[in-house]
Design brief:
Helix content: over 70%
Number of strands: 0
Order of helices and strands: HHHH
Strand content: under 5%
CATH superfamily: Tetratricopeptide repeat domain
CATH topology: Serine Threonine Protein Phosphatase 5, Tetratricopeptide repeat
Number of domains: 1
Number of helices: 4
CATH architecture: Alpha Horseshoe
Radius of gyration: 11 Å
Low-confidence stretches: none
Shape: globular
Structural class: mainly alpha
Amino acid sequence: MEKNPRYADAYFYIGYCNYELKRYNEVITEFKESIRIKPDYGEPYFGLGLTYLLLGDNASAMQ
């Protein structure tokens, strides 16, 4: 990420690793950054929704 901080995939995969480690606040941060960089990248939206569901935040999950 130092060489290319606008690489959305990197943020997505870091978020995915955090998801596996159950670090859900970090997941949200990384997925949101991935979406900010590349708004048409679908995977982080799905992961973000699942994370919000796990946290019991149904309203955010529906967005």
